[in-house]
Amino acid sequence: MNFPNELLYNKEHLWVKKEGNTALVGITDYAQDQLGEIIYVDLPEVGEEFAKGEQFSVVESAKVSSDLMMPFSGTVLEINEKLDDEPQYINESPYEAWIAKFKINDEKELEDMISAEEYEASLD
Amino acid sequence: MKVVVIGAGPGGYEAAIKAAKLGAQVSVVEKDTVGGTCLNRGCIPTKALLASSEVLKLAKEGKKFGVDISGEVEANFTNIIERKNKIVSQLVKGIEFLFNKNKIKLFKGAGKLLDANRVEVVKEDGSKDILEADRIILATGSVPICPPMFNYDGKRVITSDEVLNLKEPPKSIIIVGGGVIGCEIGQFLSRLGTAVTIVEMMPHILPNEDEDVAKQLVRQFKKDKIKVITGKGITSVKVEGNKVTAGIDEQSIEAEMMMVSIGRKPFTDGLGLENAGIELDKRGRIPVNDKLETCIKGIYAIGDLIDTPFLAHVASKEGITAAENAMGADKQMKYHAVPRCVYTEPEIAAVGMTETEAKKANMSYKIGTFDFRPLGKAQAAGKIQGFVKVIADENDRLIGASIAGPNATDLLAELTLAVHLGISAKQVGNVIHPHPTLSEAIMEALHDVHGESVHKV
CA-to-CA distance for B322 and B301, rounded, in angstroms? Predict the structure, then answer.
């Protein structure tokens, strides 16, 4: 299983790729593996605002429907529309298949995210 | 005993048959076709249309089930409407047959009270009949609400009455009101290729239903590419040529048509209530007591005319109750277990209280839920979306349930019975449920009330 070093993670199995005051958010390799074949991603809408901990998306597989909660507070700048037609893209390349791009409200909120190493260790 | 029933919808026709079975000499006055809104312009025709769109969807998804369909799969709108009309007319004949069997006389025309014991029938050709009555049951139903600001013209701006008889599906439609009618019609048209926008003033579509349940439908609508705007009302409507423009705050949206489905109101025009001494309440409904009798002895009112849920099955039960009381019984209606059904995909069905209502009433309650997804039957049938949610009070008595998912409207029966009888989550959960069926989700949700679901993760 692959956990790129340049990304931030949390224990809810999300990854965050920070670029200035924006960030891409997706689910980890471990998460996609646990979910199995993903059949639907409920994408948020551009312009929607979310508080930290608020649900921003749902990822459905044949096995389970999983709510995704915001790792920080922010506003949706872009959504990955490719996932509308090809949700299984998340299974194929979880770190290319970002779900949404957010404007980060407060960068401090990312401080409790963990490194690839810590995340991987938390999985055992 | 002479009983006259005005209106032959699901309330009136059942009242008539019940009264006849109890020995009355019954006349029914109906200005249109028997069956009322339900059969002619509501429940049944929409279900027929939705069945066609479901077949279309299944055919397109054949590959998922290992079935290759070659050639074009497309909807033939004319034939879809024709099939619907055929089903309706067969069922209309069925009611007429029941009338004959029960020696009920059907008078075609508009009924009007002359006084508390006489009903005038004005036929289409203008001629009149006068019927003498010992008891009268008013059952004239309701009509769609369509305030003047919507510029209703029956062509560009329509109601559910017209949408069922379109010649072809519009390229685009704005549906005002995300209640049952708006959601069902919206999904039907969307499946036939119409670009659908639903505008609902309340915070979520199906505003009276559980929010989690409504969310399941919103998710499906997203997949269907149906646009849903909530928490906003239409502020202006402009009809120009073949275009309707609707203002929503500062925004405006355009479509080929608009359907207004914001509710229905009792239909009492020309009923002559004043001649009998019956007054309407502020919202245009006929006040009745718990035996469904109006302020005038011997005159009953049922269904969409009174302040109870506007549902065909409520009207039917009220019709039967009114008929029994008209024939000397002392029966009261109970409304704690009224089932509510929405025939979208996923289907939505609920009975009794929602969680929101229980919360508002400050009740202590327990919730049990279970998803359809892990069930063998759901996986095999390829219908995995949705869940069952049951609500029990502090004594474990079932007070409500909501289902979103495959066959929800049929699955609800068991929970309706439970809420009706006021039995406990434990009692119903202990019933052996067949495997593999979707009803296992109900059993698991009932066990989940006590944290005892075997299959819940």
Answer: 8
**Closest chain A C-alpha to B100 CA, distance in angstroms:** 53
B393-426 tens-digit pLDDT:
999 999 999 999 999 999 999 999 999 999 999 9
d(CA B321, CA B283): 24
Asked if the Cβ–Cβ distance from A42 to B384 is below 8 Å, we say no
Structure tokens at B141: 């139903």
As a whole number of angstroms, the distance between CA B385 and CA A60 comes to 9
The answer, yes or no, to whether residue B249 has pLDDT greater than 90, is: no
Q: Which whole number is the average pLDDT over B371-378? A: 94
**A60 contacts on B by Cβ (under 8 Å):** 385
- C-alpha–C-alpha distance, residues B396 and B368, integer Å: 11
> Taking CB atoms and an 8 Å cutoff, what residues of chain B touch A43?
222
Q: How far apart are CA B189 and CA B173, in angstroms?
A: 9
Rounded alpha-carbon distances, angstroms, from residue B355 to B138, B211, B363, B392, B448: 35, 9, 10, 10, 15
Q: Does B223 touch chain A (CB under 8 A)?
A: yes
Q: Please, are residues B16 and B316 in contact by the beta-carbon 8 Å criterion?
A: no
- Joined together, the tokens standing for residue A104 give 């980060």
Residue closest to B401 by CA, chosen among B410, B409, B411, B391 = B391
Establish whether B435 is a catalytic residue.
yes
pLDDT, one tens digit per residue, over B27-61 is 999 999 999 999 999 999 999 999 999 999 999 99
Phi and psi at B207, nearest 5°, equal -55, -25
Q: Angle formed by the axes of helices B77-101 and B10-21, to 10°?
A: 20
pLDDT tens column, B313-353: 999 999 999 999 999 999 999 999 999 999 999 999 999 99
* pLDDT for the residue numbered B127: 95
CB-CB neighbours of B408 under 10 Å:
27
By CA distance, what is A57's nearest residue in B?
Answer: B219
DSSP A54-105: -EEEEEEESS-EEEEE-SS-EEEEEE-THHHH-TTHHHH-TTT---EEEEES
Tell me the pLDDT of chain B averaged across its residues: 96
Query: Under an 8 A CB cutoff, do A65 and B222 touch?
Result: no
In single-letter form, the type of residue at position B108 comes to K
Give the closest of B222, B373, B457 to A42, CB-based: B222
CB B394, CB B365: distance < 8 Å = yes
Q: Peptide bond before A4: cis, by omega within 30 degrees of 0?
A: no
Contacts of A64 in chain B (CB under 8 A): 371, 373-374, 457
Contacts of B383 (CB under 8 A, 6+ apart): B346, B372, B405, B406
pLDDT for position B437: 98
